[in-house]
Amino acid sequence: MQLSEKESEQLAEKVYDKIIGPSLPMKWHQWVIQRRMDQFDRIGIFAFPPIVIVNNEPVYPIRALIEDKHRAIDREYAESMRKLERKELVPLLKALFIREGYTLEHKEELFSGHASHYWWQIMEEVEKFVFHTRKGRKPKAALSDYKKIAALAEELVPVCEKLLGELESETKHTIGEILEFLRKDYPKPCAFLLAHLPALESALVNKKFMERRKTLRGRARHLAYGLAGTDYGLSLSTSASIAAQGKRNPA
């Protein structure tokens, strides 16, 4: 049974307090610090201006000469550090658990002491939140496109399910041959997948993406949702998220 909203929030708090919080100096903060260093390196600056973060804003020493591009990098740095705080990440994790339909089994697996692909999902969600949601950045897919991506994703699901079933039976046919065979019954989705065969082949060998779902049907849906945004230049994870959002909110 799926966790309730309250149980999802409690799980989010536990994940933060037991795993993310204790590892912040070693793992998550290093991401942000390294990103700041990389950005200064790209503009040829190796002596980074000293700053202090006050109220989520970078503050420089008096009389320090700081160019706008330095300030822009450090504002992003300050914003990223803020996003690692408990008050920011607990709601993010709660929303993830609700969206992905986490159950008691998910919770037990997370704290079983064994490796779990759900930890990769959590880490990717945090990384995406910290680094990729920029104010003013133009999205590759407009909100009006979400419904179209979701509709295409649903059309791709049955084809992806049959394709995965064939591949798991260790058929000697190539992916292209399988799609050509299925094209009679599924002309539009097969034409789309054939047109994006390199993206499909790349997705199929992407274990980090494909192993997030355990059942054949689940993997097929995840694959279909990940490929539906290919024409918009979206990554697999972004496309899957947008397709799911478009299905939930078709208006």
The share of residues in helices is 55-70%
Whole-Å distance between the termini? Answer: 29 Å
CA-based shape: globular
Q: Output mean pLDDT.
A: 85
SSE pattern: HEEHHHHHHHHHHH
Q: Approximately how much beta-strand content do the residues carry? A: under 5%
Largest sheet: 2 strands, antiparallel
- Strands across the major sheet, in which order? 1-2
Backbone CA Rg: 21 Å
Beta strands, count = 2
Task: List the uncertain runs.
Answer: 133-138
SS content category: mainly alpha
Count of discrete alpha- or pi-helical segments spanning 4 or more residues: 12
Nutshell version of this structure?
The protein has helices at residues 5-42, 68-83, 86-99, 104-110, 117-131, 143-168, 175-182, 187-195, 197-204, 207-210, 216-227, 236-248; strands spanning 52-54, 57-59. By secondary structure, the chain is mainly α.
Describe this structure in words.
This protein has 251 residues and is mostly helical. It has twelve helices and two strands, in the order αββααααααααααα. Helices cover 68% and strands 2% of the residues. Strands 1-2 form a two-stranded antiparallel sheet. Strand 1 and strand 2 (57-59) form a beta hairpin.
